[in-house]
């Protein structure tokens, strides 16, 4: 083992309009040697500008903020930085906000009463490219998706036909399998899997893994 090996630090930007919350979050992150809070913002517009300037690995953002809320800020950030990990952090345990943030491109959702370990786990998980939802959020998400399957106040999904291979890959995506894992399981090259995923994204209109999962559940292609 190399004694002088440098620890890969996750650079985080936080957005919240309450200074007292930002202060507490900053103190908490100082307790984790692998996470560094490199910037802060008090609204969605400041968040976008801060991300452009600092190029962090990950964003933690409140939802209800002045000037520009977290949902609209997330949409813009994902448009500018498609691979960026974004975690929503809110006091509002509301089903519609959970769905809005996921559809905007967030890969995680935490309530502000989450404990330190859960916050650290969420940041590390999303930074690795996974999705992370706190226990309360997972229950809310399942309730919402079960209620909206086949009958939603949102625009109804167009019926789309998928090939057997596409359905197989959608199921594996929902199980959070990587391209390499999918390729190994169904005997395809990684490049072929990537092409299938691109086609699935085009058909479903999904911008990321979460979008595919939401589409699959709402349209009966995957069960929680």
Strand line-up of the largest beta sheet: 2-1-3-4-5-6
Sheet/helix structural class: alpha/beta
Distance between the termini: 42 Å
- CATH superfamily grouping of the largest domain: Response regulator
CATH structural class of the largest domain: Alpha Beta
Multimer state: single chain
Compute the gyration radius: what is it? 18 Å
Mean pLDDT, all residues: 84
CATH fold category name of the largest domain: Rossmann fold
Secondary structure topology:
Layout: E1 10-15, H1 19-29, E2 35-41, H2 44-54, E3 58-61, H3 70-80, E4 85-90, H4 95-104, E5 108-111, H5 116-127, E6 132-133, H6 135-148, H7 164-174, H8 179-186, H9 190-204, H10 209-218
Parallel strand pairs: 1-2, 1-3, 3-4, 4-5, 5-6
Helix pairs in contact: 2-3, 3-4, 4-6, 7-10, 8-9
Characterise this structure.
This protein has a six-stranded parallel sheet with strand order 2-1-3-4-5-6, sandwiched between helices. The protein is globular. 50% of the residues lie in helices and 13% in strands. Helix 3 links the parallel strand 3 (58-61) and strand 4 (85-90). Residues 1-6 and 149-157 have low confidence and may be disordered. The chain has 224 residues and is an alpha/beta fold. It has two domains: 10-137, Response regulator (Rossmann fold, 3-Layer(aba) Sandwich); 149-218, Orthogonal Bundle (Arc Repressor Mutant, subunit A), CATH 1.10.10.10. The protein contains ten helices and six strands, in the order βαβαβαβαβαβααααα. Helix 4 (95-104) crosses helix 6 (135-148), helix 7 (164-174) crosses helix 10 and helix 8 (179-186) crosses helix 9 (190-204). It has helices at residues 19-29, 44-54, 70-80, 95-104, 116-127, 135-148, 164-174, 179-186, 190-204, 209-218, and strands spanning 10-15, 35-41, 58-61, 85-90, 108-111, 132-133.
């Amino acid at each position: 083992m190399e004694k002088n090996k440098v620890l890969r630090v996750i650079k985080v930007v936080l957005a919240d309009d309450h200074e007292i919350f930002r202060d507490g979050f900053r103190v908490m992150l100082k307790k984790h040697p692998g996470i560094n809070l490199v910037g802060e913002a008090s609204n969605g517009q400041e968040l976008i500008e801060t991300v452009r300037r600092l190029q962090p690995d990950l964003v933690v953002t409140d939802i209800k903020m002045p000037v520009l809320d977290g949902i609209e800020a997330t949409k813009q950030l994902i448009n500018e930085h498609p691979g960026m990990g974004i975690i929503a952090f809110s006091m509002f345990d509301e089903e519609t906000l959970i769905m809005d943030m996921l559809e905007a491109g967030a890969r995680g959702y935490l309530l502000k009463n989450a404990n330190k370990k859960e916050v650290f786990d969420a940041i590390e998980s999303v930074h690795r490219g996974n999705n992370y939802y706190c226990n309360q959020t997972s229950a809310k998400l399942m309730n919402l998706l079960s209620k909206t399957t086949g009958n939603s106040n949102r625009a109804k999904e167009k019926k789309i036909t998928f090939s057997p291979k596409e359905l197989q890959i959608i199921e594996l995506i929902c199980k959070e399998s990587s391209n390499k894992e999918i390729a190994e399981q169904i005997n395809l090259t990684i490049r072929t899997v990537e092409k299938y995923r691109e086609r699935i994204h085009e058909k479903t209109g999904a911008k990321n893994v979460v979008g595919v999962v939401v589409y699959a559940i709402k349209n009966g292609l995957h069960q929680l």
